Amino acid sequence: MNIFSQYLGLNLKIRANKNTIQLFKKYNLESLFTFIFGFDGDTKNTFDETYKFIQSNHIDPHVPQILTPYPGTEIYNEFIHVITTKCKRKNR
């Protein structure tokens, strides 16, 4: 399970995403695909892998987004915990 799936409580699979894209195209349904970057598991390769996925599935339009941890969400609470823990370590 990827980190995005973990925070949303979903079990997202790349294969399922590809199948959904094919169905949208088959029935000429308009769509807008959003890709979120900035999760802990993201690396420099994440951008290249995402670009290849977009190209190989002919995804258009698409919108890249930067992860924004909004107050009240689990990921926001995790960010606050990490930041305060690091600050406490530096101030020792």
Order of helices and strands: HHEHEH
Q: Which CATH class applies here?
A: Alpha Beta
Oligomer: single chain
Largest sheet: 2 strands, parallel
The percentage of residues in β strands lies in: 5-15%
Descriptive report:
This protein has helices spanning 3-8, 14-26, 44-56, 74-90, and strands at residues 33-37, 62-66. The protein is elongated. The model has no long low-confidence stretch (mean pLDDT 83). The chain has a single domain (3-90), classed as Transcription Regulator spoIIAA. β1, α3 (44-56) and β2 (62-66) form a beta-alpha-beta unit. The chain has a two-stranded parallel sheet. The protein has four helices and two strands, in the order ααβαβα. 53% of the residues lie in helices and 11% in strands. The chain is mostly helical and 92 residues long.
Structure keywords:
single chain; about 90 residues; mainly alpha; Transcription Regulator spoIIAA; two-stranded parallel sheet; 2 strands; elongated
